[in-house]
Each structure stands twice: as C-alpha cells, then as structure tokens.
Amino acid sequence: MFYVIGLGLSDEKDITVKGLEAVKKSERVYLESYTSILMVDKEKLEAFYEKPIIIATRELVELEADEILKDSDKVDISFLVVGDPLGATTHTDLLLRAHSKKIPTQTIHNASIMTALGSTGLQLYNFGQTLSLVFYTENWKPSSWFDKLKENLKLGVHTLILLDIKVREQSEENMARGRLIYEPPRFMNPQQAFSQILYTESERRSELNSEEEIEKEDLLPPSKTLAISLSRIGTPSQNLISGTLEELSNLSKEEFGDPLHSLVIVGKRLHALEFEFAGKFAIGGENGDWWKVGKEVYGVERETF
Amino acid sequence: MFYVIGLGLSDEKDITVKGLEAVKKSERVYLESYTSILMVDKEKLEAFYEKPIIIATRELVELEADEILKDSDKVDISFLVVGDPLGATTHTDLLLRAHSKKIPTQTIHNASIMTALGSTGLQLYNFGQTLSLVFYTENWKPSSWFDKLKENLKLGVHTLILLDIKVREQSEENMARGRLIYEPPRFMNPQQAFSQILYTESERRSELNSEEEIEKEDLLPPSKTLAISLSRIGTPSQNLISGTLEELSNLSKEEFGDPLHSLVIVGKRLHALEFEFAGKFAIGGENGDWWKVGKEVYGVERETF
C-alpha cells in the first residue's frame, strides 16, 4: 500500500492515530520537504516514529517518482506531507502514477491552513479563491495574484494569501557553476508580504485614469481594507494580528515572529460575529482602526455576544 | 483548559495523537452532534477513549454553553467536533464566551471536507465560495445558493456544495404538541441534491427572456456542466463519481450509497491535470461525456501523465 499521509500543522503529535499506525508498519517513510515545513525537525519525527525518514526533495518527487513508489505493491510505503496532503498537484501526480501502475493507495487526511484559518473567527464559507504570494525580486514582481484578489474583493468574500517558501535555493553563482550548494531556507514574513501588496496596489492604482475609475476599481485602499496576519497556526505560539493594511504594514518583522505565516484580506460581506471574533486580535485593541473601518467602510455594527 | 478538538472525517482513529492526549486527560468530553457525524457511533469512541462521552445537541451548545464551559478554568474539558472544529460559527461563539470568562482554550485542528476534497484531483486553490444545499420541501425551495454558485461559475472557479443533514428533527405534529420525540437522522443523497439543482436551474432559466440573456446568464446547462459527487471521503468506502450534471442526475440513490456526501461543480478554469485525475471517476469510463464536455465546453486538452 502507498500511503499519502498528512502531518497537520505543528509538531510530531499532529499526525492522526491512523496515520501513525501506517507509518509504524511502513518499510520506507518519505517526508516531502519543499511545499511546507513542520515546526519540528526530522530527528524529532524519527524518534517519535522509531523509523528513519527519507527527505523527499522536489527533484526526487518530480524526477524519481518511480523510486518512491517502488515495491509499494508488495510492502507499505508512507509519503508524509505537512498539512493535508492533497492541496498541491505534485502529490496528485504521484497518485496518478501509482494508479497507472495498479498500486493500491490510501490518503490519510489532516488539518490544513485552509481550514485552520477558522481560528481568525472568519467563516470558511465566506472565503473565495486562495492566493500565493511569491518573493518579489528587483526585476520580477509578478502581480497576477492581484487580479484574483480583486475578483474576491468584488464579490465581498475573504481571501487567504499563502506566503512563499524557498528551500534548497541555489545562488545564481552556484547554479551557474553547477554546484549543488543550497541557501538556507527562507519563509516570507508578513512585513515583506504587506510591503509587496502595497507596492502592487499602488502600481495598479497609478494605472487608473479618472476619479470614476478609482472609485470603481480601487478595491484595496490600505487605510480602508481590513486584514489579518496568521502566524504559526496550530502551534503553541500561534499569533493573529488584525487591523487595516496600513496598520499591519507598519509593524516590524519581529512583531510577526517566526514562520510559518499567511494572511487574510477581509471581504465586505464580513458579518458581526466574524468582526467581533477577529477584533480580539486588533492592533490597538478597542481603540484600533479595526473597529472604525469595520463600521464605516464594511458597514458592520458591533453586537454583544 | 477548554479544548476544541477536531475528529477528522471517518472513524475513531482519525483523531490526532495530540487530540487523543487531551481527551484522555479531560474530566468531561462533549461530542458535538448536529453539524456533522462520524462513521462510527458514540460507543466505539467511548471504548477507544476509555471515557464516557456527553452528546452535545444544538440546544445544549446554544442555550447552555456555560454548562459546557463550567470548571474549565480549573480542569481539562474537551469539546469534540467532526472535521476541523472552526468551520462553523457555533464553535467560535463558544470560544468567544470562554475568552470573556478568561478560560484558557486550545484548538486542535483536523481534516475537513474542505481540504479532503483534494481527493477529486481538483486544486484547492481553484475553489471559490462553499455552498450549502438544504432539503427542499413542497413549499420551501430557497435558491439563494444559486446566486453564489453563479458568482463562482462566472469566475470559472470550482464550487464545493455541502449537503443538508437533519438530526433531532421533530415532526410538525410532535412539535405542535410539544413532544420531544425526534425523527431518525436524514442525510441528503446526491440523487436528491442533483434533482434540486436541476429544479432551480430550470426555474432560473425560465426567467430568462431572450436568446442573449440565455447565452450570457445560463451558466449551468446540465449536459454541458461537469460535476463530481464525493461520498464517504476519508473512509475505506470512499467513492467519487464524475460526469455531467445530466449524467449524475440519472444515477440512483443506491449508486451513491451511504452518507456523508458532498458535491463539486467544476469551474471553467479546469486544467489538464485536474481533468485527468477527476476523469478516473468518470461515468462511462473512457467513453463518458466527461471527456467530450471537458474538451468541447471547458476547452481542456488531454495530456499524458
């Protein structure tokens, strides 16, 4: 059996009982290491599983999938993925290959940021498409995410924004020289994310020509848009911060702390209970812009719960 | 500590190791019983936890939340929810109350249908708002879900549709007489869901006046729209069926089998790998309408993977 097993969000104990049983009986255990990370290292997982773990790099998964699947028609093999395992097509691709080889497979699901973001108090029903924000470089600032965000904002639904992760990056020099030396992993901090968002927002705004166009198309005015940063969700040091884009963009990297992070841009269909719950994390507490903008721009009245 | 613990999708072993540890040390363990169900009964959970379980009905959670929270500032109390616990505002409400009483809380996340639907091969990123479809009655056929579906279809994103669950329903007679006698639980079968969808689709279509309006607004033509039924996701008898709305609506209740079920309406941004993976479950296999409609209406070319 080829098991694809979600590990959840935080540490070795977020695996399900069923997932752990599968790992325990597997001959080989792979850990997918390039789309997300757990908050614990490989050694801690190995100690908990009482098994060695093989790190599955992107190269291994994409180029040597057959090596991973090998013998899984005869013995049990586990492929571990942080979060819920079927979010990214990389792993559906692995399952398609197994299927074409008539290898039996079982997926063992787990928590994902896409539902754990319920911790914000925002309802999962009210989210639109999920976006990913990549690291901007001097010459490469792709802004296609902005069009999807606008689609969500026009409908009034909330948007989850996943922040870029870079693992096993090569410097240009090492790549040019064919040296397999990798840079330390990088995880985008919300401070950088907000700065990129404001950059693209202002670029797009500058393309608008008339007052009417701005009125109609300017969907993300920083002082009038509510957002929430989500840091280390599902871990003991989980931290949420809510406020206007402007307030959030003025915070330092340290205020968000260690990875992993993601963001939510709040849609106009925000309702009172969502507003109240997410307001628990407001910059400036009861005096924060969260409450003023929620009332004046989003039109939500506070209620007592 | 007041723990809110997700149980995942299928049976007693879908709880996480962390969740199980919290249950084991709790003085009282509640099981929320009205927004979803596990595939195993209370007795099996009690045997696995070696603890009695208190069933938390909607009345208990909404009217006697303080009873549930009682003493959780001094001892550990667990509140178990099928899936990931923070999808519905009922439970965020409980956390807000705990917060106002200064009770420490911890949420232990788990798998939800909202990410497990990755089993279809469709990418989670490409989903829009999630809808719920309630049981239509003779006099009550609410169709507001259709407007949200159209919003998603216009963007070309996929739509998850959750199907109604009725637990602890009273018959009109019993309700009138104040008798606390409850009907057996009901879970909507995809057969009924597709029939309701086609009903509303045809009602809405009949409101359109001109050929142009039909061209522009008729977003859900049954023979040209792809959909997928998801039954018992995450359980050993998991079953997916993909096809056109028309094909799917011609299947019998039995072909979908036991609950729980949900549906996906496929959006036009469908890409080749999604198309291929979900096509594994196509009615009629390689000769099904899935492939024809995917190519002609959705414009996806098949690739070899």
Automatic annotation (TrEMBL), chains A, B:
<feature type="binding site">
    <location>
        <position position="84"/>
    </location>
    <ligand>
        <name>S-adenosyl-L-methionine</name>
    </ligand>
</feature>
<comment type="function">
    <text>S-adenosyl-L-methionine-dependent methyltransferase that catalyzes four methylations of the modified target histidine residue in translation elongation factor 2 (EF-2), to form an intermediate called diphthine methyl ester. The four successive methylation reactions represent the second step of diphthamide biosynthesis.</text>
</comment>
<keyword id="KW-0808">Transferase</keyword>
<dbReference type="GO" id="GO:0141133">
    <property type="term" value="F:diphthine methyl ester synthase activity"/>
</dbReference>
<feature type="binding site">
    <location>
        <begin position="112"/>
        <end position="113"/>
    </location>
    <ligand>
        <name>S-adenosyl-L-methionine</name>
    </ligand>
</feature>
<dbReference type="InterPro" id="IPR004551">
    <property type="entry name" value="Dphthn_synthase"/>
</dbReference>
<feature type="domain" description="Tetrapyrrole methylase">
    <location>
        <begin position="1"/>
        <end position="248"/>
    </location>
</feature>
<dbReference type="Pfam" id="PF00590">
    <property type="entry name" value="TP_methylase"/>
</dbReference>
<dbReference type="InterPro" id="IPR014777">
    <property type="entry name" value="4pyrrole_Mease_sub1"/>
</dbReference>
<comment type="pathway">
    <text>Protein modification; peptidyl-diphthamide biosynthesis.</text>
</comment>
<feature type="binding site">
    <location>
        <position position="9"/>
    </location>
    <ligand>
        <name>S-adenosyl-L-methionine</name>
    </ligand>
</feature>
<keyword id="KW-0949">S-adenosyl-L-methionine</keyword>
<dbReference type="GO" id="GO:0017183">
    <property type="term" value="P:protein histidyl modification to diphthamide"/>
</dbReference>
<protein>
    <recommendedName>
        <fullName>diphthine methyl ester synthase</fullName>
        <ecNumber>2.1.1.314</ecNumber>
    </recommendedName>
</protein>
<dbReference type="InterPro" id="IPR035996">
    <property type="entry name" value="4pyrrol_Methylase_sf"/>
</dbReference>
<feature type="binding site">
    <location>
        <position position="87"/>
    </location>
    <ligand>
        <name>S-adenosyl-L-methionine</name>
    </ligand>
</feature>
<keyword id="KW-0489">Methyltransferase</keyword>
<dbReference type="GO" id="GO:0032259">
    <property type="term" value="P:methylation"/>
</dbReference>
<feature type="binding site">
    <location>
        <position position="261"/>
    </location>
    <ligand>
        <name>S-adenosyl-L-methionine</name>
    </ligand>
</feature>
<keyword id="KW-0488">Methylation</keyword>
<dbReference type="InterPro" id="IPR000878">
    <property type="entry name" value="4pyrrol_Mease"/>
</dbReference>
<comment type="similarity">
    <text>Belongs to the diphthine synthase family.</text>
</comment>
<comment type="similarity">
    <text>In the N-terminal section; belongs to the precorrin methyltransferase family.</text>
</comment>
<feature type="binding site">
    <location>
        <position position="163"/>
    </location>
    <ligand>
        <name>S-adenosyl-L-methionine</name>
    </ligand>
</feature>
<dbReference type="InterPro" id="IPR014776">
    <property type="entry name" value="4pyrrole_Mease_sub2"/>
</dbReference>
